[in-house]
Amino acid sequence: MRVFLIGAGQVGTTIVEALHEDHEITVLDTEGSRLQALTSRFDVAVFEGNGTSRKDLAAAGIGRADLVIACTSRDEVNIVAGMFSRREAEKATTVIRTSSSEYVELWREGQLDVDFVVSSELETAYAISSILGVPAARQTDVFADGQVQVGEFDVDEDASADVVGVPLRNASLPSDSKVAAIIRGDELILPRGDEVIRHGDRIVVIGSPAAAKAWSELLWPEGGIVRDVVIYGAGRVGSAIARVLREQGLSVRMIEAQRDQARRAAEAFPDVRVFNASGFDPDFLERERIGQAQAAIFAMRDDAKNQYAASLARVHGVPFTVAIAHEAVSISAFEQAGIDVSVNPRAVTAEEIVRFAHDPRMQQVAMLEGNRFEVLDVTTRDTSRYIGMAFRDMPVHGSLIGAIVRNGTAIFPHGDDVLEAGDRVIIFTEAANAPWVVEAL
Amino acid sequence: MTHAAARIGRRRRIAIDLWAVFNLVGSLGKYLGLAVIFPIAVALWYSEPFWPYLLSGAVTSGLGVVLERATARPDTRLGVREGFLVVALTWLLAAAFASMPYLLAGGAQLSSPIDAYFEGMSGFTTTGASVVTDFDDLDQSLLMWRQFTQWLGGMGIIVLAIAVLPRLRVGGRQMMESELPGPEIGALSERIRSTARRLWVLYAVLTILQAVVLAGLGWAGVDEAMTPFKAIAHALATMPTGGFSTEPRSIEGFSAETQWVIAVFMLIAGANFALLYKAFVRRRLRLLPRDEEFRLYVALVLGASVAITVMLWGYGISEGEAAVRAAVFQTLSIVTTTGFATTDFAVWPAVMLLAIFALMFVGGSAGSTGGGIKVVRHLLLGKILRREIDQTLSPEVVMPIRLNNAPVDERTLRAIAFFILLYVGMWAVGASVIAIDSAVSNVGLGTLDALAVSATALGNIGPAFGLAGPMGSFAELGDVSKITMIGLMWAGRLEILPVVVLLTRHYWRL
Predict the structure, then answer these.
(1) Which chain B residues have a beta carbon less than 8 Å from that of A267?
(2) What is the pLDDT of residue B173?
């Protein structure tokens, strides 16, 4: 597939990273230095030019593209580029990135002439909302209209003895779920029945949302359901998170240092208590009992502030902290600082955009552990050689089927179940294997 | 090129364009004089002398034309500053215009210029306080003129609320915000003129409807006392929440049905006209229960009616339907600042007087013809207080105050608190002056009576307690008290601020 990418920033780079092996990519950006950095790492064509210039787009060869992705950090550029792409490359699928939920609304109403609109803020908010649903998970994603959830969990000292130190076939695991992988240091294990989960492992579980919650409770027995959240930062990201969490009925408090921003948030969310405070003042944290919240989300613009505020919130007793990491490098720093989960909006956005580049049979992709593993949602072909084969007879090949969706219902298959044509398969695989897996099914 | 020193010229210290103000007031007076056509027609119908009205109209229009011509200047500025003075002067001069027929045809009881001006101001501010004691001595046309001044005053208030006050706040934001708190009126139509015209039509249609219903009751024999003349007269005083009556004992002499009809129209007159327009003309009735001010207005009326019914029954003053009717009517009359009465509440026990007294501070809805503090200001003040209490505990919490789900500007909120403070202050000063004057000039006005007289004037209600009760008259009050009341009626009608602004030095001089 020929992919034309406008914008070589963080989102663009992440997309290139995920797609460069299987696709022919052209990247257009105004800054030569960014393009140079990109060519030194990946085999992509680059063009220095303006995404809002039809001439530049045409010269860079947008007309030959099958997929046009406009993912600069500026909404206006993306919209104009998307518009020109419609004219220059009539057959291409056009995807634009936006940071405004208003454009998403417009697109849903059919007012914006592009195929897909991906909003960093909304994707981030959805990601955070699914994390709060399964608080023990480091990372989680939902598939098949919410019927299948994939979660990545750390197994630490608190984990229940029901699952740790027992061969998997003997362990009392939550029903409708499967351990897809065990990550032990740098090693990846696709577990068989005799494998044992140990403390310090990181595991990937595929199962129903209820099973994912059950896993969360097994691995974090003290934890409950998150009903009460404090959000630091009422900017676009913070507000999007607040909106999504309020829609799910969570009780939300917000802390925002800028007076105007705080006022806007308070006007937008009548049932959210908004504080005009930095969140770094111990007196304030104590007086407002911020420590009593079940979870805190740090969505301020500055990663350093997020990290410090998260540590401070921990000190005041907040049990679960989720921080936005605007810079990819912050993720490991946050992990060091004891923040439970970090979310990089650009990575989330890139992940969402990448799925448009996959085979049309593919519904959705999740990337885990950086980009080492992927979870794919693929519809099987009639001609696949695995049709009619029982799951226990299938080869391993560094991948594992976690669930199938048959006639709209999720099934968590056992060894003697048989794959049928037209099944949607939720499959966990190493990233390098992904094209082979899609091909085989 | 002229020399710089020559260009600098004289010092110009007057901050407002008086020519423009007089010019506009003159042109308003020119048209106002035409209002005498109605009493002239009534006088001709009843074969009464019509020359007092003709003379009053001629003088008013004539002076208006002269003033307009004399002050015409090529480049005048009519901005926010000038607007305050225009509004203030217009009501002063309209009251003078209204008082001319009283002086010319009112006989002995209206022969004093202060009494005549009092009656005129009470009419044009839709107050309804009267110095008339002998109603039989007045011509039918003069009685109708009293009612008609209230109706004209009500029309003026609609324009004031829609066209003038919002425009004044364009520049004088912090002073004028409190005139139109929230999203009413302005949102009704982009163009102020057409909005005003629509609300005028609504106002006129409701007046005609009430007159027809009342006349119908009389014609059908339900109410023997209700003649077409009285039907028109009382309709003219209900929609503007005026309260003048052609009867010495207000509405008491009419049947129960008439009293209920008038109560319903008072309820309507005390609601926001823009809201009524949307609800009834645009057929969006759901807006009524959704409007926070309307909900509180109805709740207050219901609550007070129940309380007063219980007290009337408990004290054995009346019972059954009569008690409910008396309670509902008096409550509506005071809350909407109309000032009619079906019973002499001045003789009620002290607890009930206090209840009536408290209702005097409610006022109608914003965007109605009612005066007083107004329901929406109470509503927002309550919300401000609740927030203050909350912020005592959590100083950092940000709580925008909402009215009908829309956040209200902080400056508006400050202006509302300031308005209420000013209102109460002005009421207290007025009450003191009236109490002292009554004591000095040996008028039998008690302390609570004096407090009520000040409140009734400032709130444009009408009746007070004691000798100034609903069946009494303000005639016995001293001149100082009457002048004070004139001032209070005037200031209260203009929502105080435009009047107070005129008292500041920097309004006039740089």
Answers:
(1) 400, 407
(2) 30
CA distance B351 to B442: 26
Do A98 and A79 share a structural domain? Answer: yes
pTM of the model: 0.79
The verdict on residue A184 lying in a domain is: no
Is position A340 within any domain?
Answer: yes
CB distance A287–B394 less than 8 Å?
yes
Cβ-Cβ contacts under 8 Å, A252 against chain B: none
Nearest CA in chain B to A277: B396
- Count of CA atoms in the C-beta half-sphere (13 A) of A150: 27
* Residue B396 to residue A270, Cβ atoms within 8 A: no
A382-387 contacts: CB < 8 A, separation 24 or more? A382/A421, A382/A422, A384/A419, A384/A421, A384/A440, A384/A441, A385/A440, A386/A419, A386/A440, A386/A441, A387/A419, A387/A420, A387/A421
Is the confidence at residue A181, as pLDDT, over 90?
A: no
Overall average pLDDT of the B364-387 stretch:
90
Beta strands A295-298 and A321-324, pairing class: parallel
- Using the Cβ of B49 and the Cβ atoms of chain A, whether some distance falls under 8 Å is answered with no
The answer to whether residue A433 is domain-embedded is: yes
Full strand arrangement of the beta sheet holding A409-411 = A362-368, A373-379, A424-430, A399-406, A409-411
- CA–CA distance, B122 with B99 (Å, rounded to integer): 10
Residue the block writes with tokens 């002398």? B49
Alpha helices in A89-166 (DSSP H): 101-108, 120-133
Give the domain extent around A357: 350-440
Contacting residues of B for A274, CB less than 8 Å apart? 397-399
Total domains in chain A come to 3
In a domain, B465, yes or no: yes
The 10s digit of each residue's pLDDT in A303-327 is 999 999 999 999 999 999 999 998 8
Asked if A262 lies within 8 A of B402 by C-beta distance, the reply is no
> Binning pLDDT at 50, 70 and 90, where does residue B275 land?
confident
Domain with B438, as residue range(s), is 403-508
Ranking A112-121, A376-385, B167-176, B441-450 by mean pLDDT, the lowest is B167-176
Q: Is B392 on the interface with A (CB under 8 A)?
A: no
pLDDT digits 0-9 by tens, A51-87: 899 899 989 888 889 899 999 989 999 999 999 998 8
Q: Match 């020519």 to its residue by tokens.
A: B19
Condensed to tens digits (0 to 9), the pLDDT of residues B172-217 reads 232 233 334 333 333 333 566 777 788 889 999 999 999 999 999 9
CB contact, 8 Å: B397 with chain A? yes
Judged by a CB distance cut-off of 8 A, whether residue A232 touches chain B is no
**B396-416 per-residue burial string, b: 16 or more CB within 10 A, e: under 16:** bbbbbbbbbeebbeeebbebb
Of A265, A270, A275, the CB nearest to B396: A275
Strands B402-403, B406-407: pairing kind: antiparallel
* β-pairing verdict for A148-154 and A202-207: antiparallel
Tell me the residues of chain A between 409 and 428 that have a Cβ less than 8 Å away from chain B: none
